Amino acid sequence: MMLGVAIGISSLTALYSVGENTRQETSRRFKNMLGTFDTVMVRPGSGRTRGMPSLTNVEPTLKFDDALAIETGVPEIKRVARLQSAFDIDVKYKDRATATAVFGASPNWLDLRGDEVAEGEFLSDEDERMLARVAVIGTDIRSVLFADENPGGKTLRIADVPFQVKGVLKPRGAGPTGASLDNVIMIPVATASRRLFNRDFLTMVVAQLNDPLQSETAIFNVRALLRQRHHLAPSALDDFTITSPQAITAQVTRVGTTLARTLMGVAGIAVLVGGIVIMSLMLIAVSERRKEIGVRRSFGASRNDILLQFMLESVVISVVGGFLGLVVAVAGTNLAAAFQNMAPVFAWNALGLAALLSIGTGVLFGFYPAWKAARLDPVFALRS
Question: What is the pTM of this model?
Answer without folding.
Answer: 0.60
